[in-house]
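ok new one. same drill as before - structure tokens go in, u give me an amino acid for every spot. 110 of them this time. try not to just spam alanines like last time pls lmao
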């Protein structure tokens, strides 16, 4: 898994490439925690290049979202691929989190 972060407007864009599973999910969580500690409280997670997400990946997302919420922050997602979108839907994450078709659309809703 590769993470790429960009600061755009009022949010931190976190792009995920590859697989987010039991081995790589802690890296996502740790990176996000570091940004939260530095004061970033608005996250757009770009799922466009995420090929696979496991329950461990979903757990890391949930823990990051809880940490943001406790700091009065927010998280949303954009550009899900077919399989990732299906996992979000089946797991109920699509009803818990906002999902947008593009980064621009996500940024406009924060």
């Amino acid at each position: 898994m590769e993470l790429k972060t960009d600061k755009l407007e009022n949010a931190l864009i976190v792009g995920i490439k590859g697989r987010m599973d039991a081995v790589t999910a802690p890296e996502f969580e740790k990176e996000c925690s570091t940004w939260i500690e530095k004061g970033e409280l608005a996250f757009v997670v770009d799922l466009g290049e995420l090929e696979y997400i496991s329950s461990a990946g979903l757990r890391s997302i949930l823990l990051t979202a809880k940490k943001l919420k406790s700091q009065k922050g927010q998280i949303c997602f954009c550009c899900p691929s077919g399989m990732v979108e299906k996992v979000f839907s089946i797991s109920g994450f699509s009803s818990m989190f906002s999902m947008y078709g593009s980064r621009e659309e996500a940024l406009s809703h924060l």
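The mean pLDDT is 95. and btw The radius of gyration is 12 Å.
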